[in-house]
Amino acid sequence: MLSTLSRYTLNWGSIRRVKVLLFSVFAASSILCVGQLSISQEFEGKVIGVKDGDTIEVLYDSIPVRIRLAHIDCPESGQPYGSSAKKYLSDLCYGRTVTVRQTDRPDKYGRTIAAIYIGDECLNLAMVRSGMAWHFKKYSTDEDYAVAELAARESQIGLWADKDPTAPWEWRRIGRGGN
Length: 179
What we know:
Distance between the termini: 51 Å
Strand order of the largest sheet: 1-2-3-6-5
Order of helices and strands: HEEEEHEEEHEHH
Structural class: alpha+beta
Number of helices: 5
Low-confidence stretches: 5-10, 20-39
Helix content: 40-55%
Shape: globular
């Protein structure tokens, strides 16, 4: 019985080493994939999913890449205008080929942060102009977005038609978004 227990102990040590080796290989391959994307600061791909008003999925070199639209923050799914923002973005780009221009390293969820273009039109900016997004000033100082948000507010279009719209970062902070 004792020799059987010792044998299992040795096997657990071996299994642990194999797990560490497999994790190392997986981590290295993940880094290589992320590195491959960071080498190409601009790439084209087909939009295969719209997760919400500021997150899409683009097929690049047969690999789905989740993209967080830079400079903007859209209402959350359970928030007023959340589904409108998602639909508006989907109408702009779903199924179309877009140019992805990375602006920063991936966010804490591993999403690529980028400006998305169809031709010369920046979809990120189009979301703000249409009143479907806020300029995310915490992470962006781009004046074009500030001007676009101000114009949408003054015109009371999209979410700015609401009497008192709640910014998504406030919605998340107070927990109404369920996150």
